[in-house]
Design brief:
Layout lengths: L4 E8 L2 H13 L5 E14 L2 E15 L3 H11 L8 E4 L5 H10 L4 H13 L1
Antiparallel strand pairs: 1-3, 1-4, 2-3
Helix pairs in contact: 1-2
């Protein structure tokens, strides 16, 4: 079966929190890329009231196989009681870009990089 890709979004109430989620996801190889967008104006229902807030959006580029682990990382590192975690399927894209996403989100990509560095240094 062919690899499936998703874009995962979440929002936070601060740029530093958004940046930390982005960096953690990329460092853990749960996303090949994470983009911060904002500030954005959000209006939503919360605890029976209409709320408005300034937020920052994070858009993660990853594979469908990595979604559950990425969702856990977002949940664990998020300050919201109920963080937005939405995965949107990528139905088409540049094959070169999608291959890069798959390569960068391989769980053992760091180990392969370490082996390559050792080969170069000997």
């Amino acid at each position: 079966m062919a690899q499936s890709y998703v874009q995962v979004t979440t929002t936070t109430d601060s740029r530093p929190e958004a940046a930390e989620l982005a960096k953690s996801a990329v460092a853990e190889r749960l996303a090949a890329c994470a983009q911060l967008v904002g500030p954005i104006a959000s209006t939503y229902w919360w605890e029976g009231e209409i709320e408005s807030a300034e937020e920052w959006m994070v858009v993660f580029k990853t594979t469908a196989d990595r979604f559950d682990e990425l969702a856990s990382l977002i949940t664990d590192g998020h300050s919201y009681d109920t963080p937005e975690i939405i995965a949107t399927p990528v139905v088409a894209g540049s094959m070169d870009y999608l291959a890069w996403v798959a390569e960068q989100t391989e769980p053992d990509a760091d180990e392969e990089a370490d082996v390559d560095e050792d080969v170069v240094s000997t």
